[in-house]
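anyone seen this seq b4? input:
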Amino acid sequence: MKNILLITLFLVSLTIKSQELFIKAYDWEKEPNHNVQDQTKDLIVYKNKTISEFAFEGNMFTEYFLIHKIYWLNSDKQIENFNKMYLPVFNGAEVIENKARVITPEGKIINLSKSKINKAINQETGKDLLYYAFEGITKGSFIESYYLVKKYPTYKGKRIFFQNESYSKNIEFDLYAPKNLIFEFKSFNNAPKVLKDSVLQTKEHWYVKSNKIEPLIKENKAPYHASRSFIIYKADRNLNNNVTGISSYSKVAKNIYKYYYKEYSKKENKLLNKLLNSIVDKDLNDKEITIKKIDNYIKTKIFSPKVYDKKYQDLENIITGNIANTTGVVKLYIALLRVAKVKHEIVLTSERDIIKFDKFFEADNFTTDFLIYFPKTKKYTSMEDQASRYGFPPTNLTDNYGLFIKEVKIGDFKSAIGKVKYIKSVKTNQNIDKMNIDVSFNEKDLTSNQVKIKRSLTGYNALPIQSFMHLIKNKDELIESFAKQLDKKAKISLKEMKNSDIKSFGVKPLVFKINFLSESFTDKAGKNYLFKIGKLIGQQIEMYQDKKRMLPYEDGFNRSYYRTINVKIPDGFIISNLNDLNINNSYLDKSGKEIFVFKSFYELKGNNLKITANEHYNKHLIPVDLFEKYRKVINSAADFNKITLLLKPKK
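predicted toks r here
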């Protein structure tokens, strides 16, 4: 939708005659003689060739796009993985050529029949899928595919990957364009540089050639796709009509504003005002409450199907029918905020784990997701993500740059300007997980414990529950799950939940109170007892690994944990290993600020043992050089979880 909005009229005055297409002259080898020297690998991308050729056919500007790949398969697992090989599907594209073959180790060529090129439907998106169904593959075989389509041109930002989890050879990329159309390129993550052909006279030609690219292996919570080597290209100038900045953000800002900030009809205004009054009621003067109520209304009352249909973009239909697609949802947000006179800015950004917003290279690749920014409160909300709420946008859209689009007025003239700025993440003190636990022992049977837990959650910790509580049918089961996580056989005597409604989000913490009896925390060992106190905080993440970390680690959000455990030591017993409770691991930056902290300690007064175990993470995007320090602190919580106290009879 956004791509359609941002189309510019840079093709208007073209007089280019049709030219022979280079892409149509390309073909695979009729008699292939592929050879792999290193037989130790189970998979090699033997060839990765991409060609994009832009052309004018009559008055139509179009693009031909070709993908030619060869894989060498040397294990049963890889043969199974490539029994089906999926192809990219472009909306409205015309398939010019589509073929595949298997080349056995003996050199036998098995061409894939057209009947083995199948269609399927992606169950999540509902979109068509194309795939090859290969047969006759044995170890050491090559599989080869060749796919050429004529499609709507992608010229304001296209990404081409060169790297994956396998060793790659013979990487090639070519882009051909008419002489009047100038493209710009940028290489990311050590991708090969794009070179310009200085020999070809009839067309512009840019290319990449690389003999090999090392694999990039996936790691837990790594921004894998953002870390792979790739290039992005975009059209920048049309020499025929002196149009420059074809893909510029200034044009993006103006087009977005023109589309979403139209004047409303009398009927639309009447419907919007009526709807706003029903949502906000008497709180219209409090802009922050107004924002929250609009946000909650749209995310709980408006059904948003993932379909393109103009009726789901029409404000009148949306208000009367409560159905809107993505474009319609954005329209409704902006319309209600305008009628309520709430100052705001549209923000276009990207999911940073998929592609990090580049503030210097202006391309559509970085403007895939909407946010709204409220300058007065310096907070954001997502218009598209129903699980997010005002002040707590999707975490992967924060700690990233974005294009902020702001309305400007000069007399009666209205337009918008765009400026790239940083989207700050939510502060640590807004994401609190606090536990207060009281534990006592049954005097007649010390293996039985009475446990009382009060747990309060704020921010992103509470959001998944508070934002969807209206849809949860079995609330008792939800409350019980907090006890069952600690002991599946817990005998629950009290279960309470407070502030679970969405109106409390960001205002009051979500609170659980649970009392239960358990026989899972204490074991008898002769005259002694083993009290597994660490289990009371629940299972913790363990990050133990032999291999050196190669990619950044991106956790969800900045956060703090506060834990207090009060233990009533049974009469006649002492705890002999209290010092095991003392853990202090932290990382401080150069200014002395604590970035990662785990600290646990105890106080003993008579039979009353008070244990504190607090944990703070003031940084959640962890570069490789800080990973070991982060891992040490994370593992401190796992170490605490394993602590067992030894109760001995007093002498």
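The chain has three domains: 2-31+38-244, 250-423, 428-649. Confidence is low (pLDDT under 50) at residues 1-18. kinda curious what u guys think
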